[in-house]
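Why show two proteins at once? Because comparison is the fastest way to build intuition. When a single record is shown, students tend to memorize it. When two are placed side by side, the eye starts asking what differs. So, the first record is below.
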Amino acid sequence: MARTAGQLRDSSTGSGHVNHFVGDGIAMNYHVEPIPRLLMAAFVAAHHYAVRVPPHCLLSLGCFAGTDLVGVASWGYCVRPRHTIQRLFPSLGTGDYYELNRLCMLDSEPRNGESHFLRLCREYIRQRQPGRVVLFSWADGMRGKPGYVYQADNWLYGGFIRTEFYVTAAGEVVHPRQVTTRCGRRDRAFTRSVGLRRVRGRQFRYCHFLCGRSEVHRLLAEHLTAEVPVKTQGRNRALHEWKPRANAFDNHWFDCLVGCVVGAAMCGVTLPGVNVGLVRRRPRGRVRLSALVGR
């Protein structure tokens, strides 16, 4: 862990990106370089709450302040790599994206250091591996992490899933699939008998595009059109309900868009070109406070 940046250059290819910024009033000079996987895993074991690194790590990047290693990032895949990306973008495959498996930085670094580290990683991957279209990551809501690091770096929120994991008596986290693979079962009676405590919660998706604007537009359109309007009857009137296409995927961004439009309409905001005269507003009469109290 005490290796210098010069020693790391001997075991890797290329030079890193340099970034100057000020955080908490402290001027920092970060640069990113590829590092050996063993060094990244040792840093994670010493400073990250998860301790372990997923096996599918394809790129290990280190964040240096001068010659000191102050952060690491593991890029690759996690469980079900093709399913993960195609839940958002069905036309993409495993070779089109990287998933951020681990991001770890020393607590002594200033605020927003992780977000600046992410930006440097993004620039490095965009230049060295132009075939990568999207960067993807999960924010661990079950541990109180809603994704502030990604939000500060302008990542897009892609919805959430409900999930679970198990914790041993020693505090070690065990993935549900790992329990099934090693023990062949993970029903409640069995997990309790071996001392595993189940924790349930949410994980939040985030992604950042590395491609050009036209490809971004195509991918977002692909995601937003995952549902189609279906004409139906309700309360003696004809209306349209949005139904997912066959074998489709989640389109949380479309739900967010609809929610924003509804909220804007409630505030009296109209889109350019919309005939305001067609919008019907209910007249609001004056209500006395005594009438409200009497209800």
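Second record. Ask yourself what differs from the first in the token line.
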Amino acid sequence: MRLKGASVLVTGASSGIGAATARQFARAGARLTICARRLDRLHDVADQCRHAGAEAVVVRRTDMTRPADVRAFVAGALRDFDRVDVLVNNAGVGWRGRFMDMPEDALRTLVETNLTGLALAVQAALPAMLEANRGVIINVASVVGFRATPYSAVYSATKHAVVGLSHALRGELSGTGIKVCTVYPGTTRTEFRGSLAPPEGPLVRRPEQVARAIVRAARWPRRDVIMFPYRVAQLVEPVLGGPLDHLLGEVRRRGLDSPAGPPPGGASRAGGRS
């Protein structure tokens, strides 16, 4: 995919991976439509994208739990730029704690943001992509999409669902010219953990590293983009999955109320990137 002049949509672009992804596409000369709930932060990102080289940037306040907002976001991009070349579904929220203590409204918000909103964005973009016989859909999942994390049960479930949706769509759209990619970030130094301290450690990645992987996937689409070293974890999962369930459960039980936060791909009660 040639990115200069391409119409690129990024959800959850007000901070973290989404903001870094928007800036990375801007450096390639793309025309951007970016959305999030925090309009003030979104305008700051838009200014950064313009300075980075974006041909044009349009911002839209969008709540991914509201179907009308999601459809209007895609419709606006089609109205402004006539097409959708790349759709990056990055918006997401998290919740950490005991599953039995999870409030119903938090459960619904996770499912509606991480899965339903993503699926509706794809549905809204597909007709234009099919008409053009081209397009790239990039769904940002998580390493918990293949290695579920105790005390982030619903978050893990939504990311497993994103992986399943992406892989099924990839087959469904075979031969149409539309590519579907899934990106699996691990622990990333972003605001996703909410009030918890930013994560540190040798395995922690910067948002820019994930953003570069996303842009590479847009240029040269492939089924799965798993950030190193989590590819190893995916390979050993069929053999060591059972022991890991118990190990991670013990680790997170001990650290549930500590500021250390979740293991790779986890989430906090206040976390989010939408």
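One difference worth noting in the second protein: The two ends are 26 Å apart (CA to CA).
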